[in-house]
């Protein structure tokens, strides 16, 4: 949390994770027409919406007793694209190995998503927006749970 921030196209990002992730996605990642992306800012209902989309897309693939969401969290079934950024070709090979439709999420703001993701018919994009006051309260309560009690 003490890392410096840089402003890029009107948004504040960390140099190593946010800016590096953005550059990798913009220059190397190619979405498939069947891909489904979930773009959210933190604390806007990302986990809930990941579970809902995964269950909807895979409703006929799994039975009620072997559904992955019974044993695994939504973040494992619907991973963040940001976690695959490591600066080498391994990232691309891992993403290419995902079966279609690929379900991927990101916390990048809509204005920073590359045209390859926002153009019509390049992929499906679900973007969730929440009232900033509600996000602030949710973030405040979340951070207070992480703060050690004296």
UniProtKB/TrEMBL annotation:
Pfam families: Sulfotransfer_1 (PF00685). It comes from the Eukaryota. Gene3D superfamilies: P-loop containing nucleotide triphosphate hydrolases. Residues 33-146 form the Sulfotransferase domain. One of its GO terms (molecular function) is sulfotransferase activity. Its EC number is 2.8.2.-. The keyword Transferase applies. The keyword Electron transport does not apply. Keywords: Transferase. InterPro entries: P-loop_NTPase (IPR027417), Sulfotransferase_dom (IPR000863). Belongs to the sulfotransferase 1 family. This is Sulfotransferase. It comes from Hibiscus syriacus.
């Amino acid at each position: 949390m003490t890392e410096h921030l840089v402003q890029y196209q009107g948004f504040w990002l960390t140099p190593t994770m946010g800016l590096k992730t953005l550059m990798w996605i913009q220059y190397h990642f190619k979405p498939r027409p069947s891909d489904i992306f979930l773009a959210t800012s933190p604390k806007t209902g990302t986990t809930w919406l990941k579970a809902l989309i995964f269950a909807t897309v895979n409703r006929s693939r799994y039975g009620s007793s072997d559904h992955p969401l019974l044993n695994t969290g939504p973040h494992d079934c619907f991973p963040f694209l940001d976690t695959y950024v490591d600066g080498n070709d391994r990232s691309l090979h891992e993403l290419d190995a995902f079966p279609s439709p690929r379900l991927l999420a990101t916390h990048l703001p809509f204005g920073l998503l590359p045209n390859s993701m926002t153009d019509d018919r390049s992929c499906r994009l679900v973007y969730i927006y929440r009232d900033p006051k509600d996000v602030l309260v949710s973030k405040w309560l979340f951070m207070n749970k992480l703060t050690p009690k004296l």
